[in-house]
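This section describes the prediction task in plain terms. A model, or a person checking by hand, is given the sequence of a single protein chain and must write out its three-dimensional structure as a string of C-alpha cells. No templates, partner chains or ligands are provided. The sample shown here is typical of the held-out split.
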Amino acid sequence: METAELWPSLRLASRWVKQATHILNNRDNHTAGQVKASFRGLIASMARHGHQAGPLEDALQHFLKVTRSYWPGLFLTYSVEGLPRTNNDLESMFGSVKRLDRRI
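The expected answer:
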C-alpha cells in the first residue's frame, strides 16, 4: 500500500498539533510566560525531531520558520484578561456588540 509509509509521520504530526492545541487553549489559565515557555518547549522538540516527520519535514520547517517570525506577538493575548485569542473569537465578540447596538 502506497500510503502506509505516511502513517508514522502523520501520527507524529498529529501528536504535535494536539500538544500545541492543548498549550494554546490554556484551559489551566497559565500566565503568558508559562504558555510561552510550554510552547517554546514544544517548538524545540519539533525542531529536534523534525527528521522523523519524513515527507512532512518541509511543512514542519515552514511552520517553524513562520512561528519564529511571528514569535514576538504570539502570546500578547494571554497577558490581557478577556481579550479574544483568535480572529473567530474576536469576530464573535464584535458581532455580539453589533447585535446589542442594533437592539438599542
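For orientation: The chain has four helices and no strands.
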